[in-house]
Design brief:
four-stranded antiparallel beta sheet, disordered N terminus, five-stranded antiparallel beta sheet, alpha+beta, 11 helices, 368 residues, Beta-lactamase
Length: 368
């Protein structure tokens, strides 16, 4: 079969269409959305993915900063070489990599705990102070709260305040094996069924959580958890797609998209509304970590996350990465995940939320 490759490029993105005499293959990527996301990221090092939760269509895959590949293959001005040297690795494809997800992983811990009866939506946990450890065997290691304290804590205000201690205790209650098998239900640990090399996600090294200290850290997205921006967007899509995750689609044949469920019932139907309401409160509640994303006329839900990259408890110089995952809930059309590197002393995940808010405002008003 004779294939003709047609590439449309600009300095921000590229779309490739493979065309034969018999059929056209066109990418699902929305160029205007891709450009908007890139602009919102303002050249900061990071990555973003956007999907349609109902079909699995990949609407955007963005790596920032970027460069014009045409410039790379032609004469390079000294000014261009200096700009590349000053940039934060513009040749790295960040959207294909896997990162520590921080508190965005709490969705998965909550879904597993609810489905296994280890988390009760209205069940209160008495948590005093801003640090906790299971016992003295942990030595100096403590799980810490970072967004204020409230006690007793239930699932909703644990999401609103992003309470690390609540989710660490929940993970201990869930147990190592159940947390791993429940995460695997979301496709974590598997190769994504997509025609592009995206790094595999993981719950822990070798799919084994070695002790309770690591189990607690895993519950709030630290430890050895690694997830790509596309994988976390797919995980959140289950909240607005009846508990199912669609197979990610990058191309349609003859302009025809054929949606297919990849993972079914990763969140049980009894618990979808609970989680959706709690993620909505993260934005709507004045104490929510993403309250600055609230937009009149738009029904949004989401979760922030700050991933600490320190090697151990004594590491005080390591950077943080900021995350935000957001979706519309009234008539779901999009889930956006965004990671910005090196946000320590910039507001952590709060540095990311306005960027995603701009994307959601733009896209939803465009397609409404």
């Amino acid at each position: 079969m004779l294939l003709q490759v047609i590439m449309v490029t600009n300095s921000r993105s590229a779309v490739v269409s493979l065309r034969s005499r018999a059929e056209n293959i066109k990418l699902s990527v929305d160029i205007e959305l891709q450009e908007k996301i890139y602009a919102q990221m303002k050249g900061e090092p990071g990555a973003s993915s956007a999907i349609n939760p109902k079909t699995g269509e990949v609407l955007a895959l963005v790596s920032s900063p970027s460069f014009d590949s045409n410039t790379y293959t032609t004469y390079k001005y000294l000014s261009q070489l200096a700009a590349w040297k000053a940039a934060s690795d513009p040749f790295k494809n960040r959207f294909s990599a896997a990162y520590s997800p921080g508190s965005t992983f709490k969705l998965i811990t909550a879904a597993i705990g609810l489905d296994n009866g280890k988390i009760k939506p209205e069940g209160d946990i008495d948590i005093q102070g801003d640090s906790w450890q299971l016992d003295k065997s942990w030595g100096s290691h403590m799980v810490k709260r970072v967004n204020g304290t409230v006690s007793p804590v239930n699932l909703k205000n644990a999401f609103v305040y992003s309470d690390n201690i609540y989710f660490a205790k929940s993970a201990i209650s869930i147990g190592k094996d159940v947390l791993i098998s429940g995460s695997n239900k979301f496709g974590i640990g598997e190769k994504l069924p997509i025609g592009y090399p995206i790094a595999n996600s993981q719950v822990a090294n070798n799919n084994k959580i070695k002790n309770d200290e690591l189990l607690a850290d895993t519950g709030y997205g630290q430890g050895e958890v690694l997830i790509s921006p596309l994988q976390i967007a797919l995980s959140y899509s289950a909240v607005v797609n009846d508990g199912n995750i669609m197979s990610p689609i990058l191309e349609g044949i003859n302009d025809k998209i054929v949606p297919k469920v990849w993972k079914s019932s990763v969140i049980s139907k009894d618990n979808i509304k609970i989680i959706k309401d709690d993620l909505t409160a993260v934005i709507d509640d004045v104490n929510g970590t993403a309250h600055n994303v609230k937009t009149d006329g738009l029904a949004l839900a989401g979760k922030t996350g700050t991933a600490e990259l320190k090697k151990d408890d004594s590491d005080t110089t390591a950077e943080d990465n900021g995350w935000f995952v957001c979706m519309d809930t009234a008539n779901p059309k999009i889930v956006v995940s965004m990671l910005i590197e090196n946000v320590k002393n910039k507001g952590e995940s709060h540095y990311v939320t306005p960027m995603v808010k701009g994307v959601m405002d733009y896209y939803l008003k465009r397609v409404m």
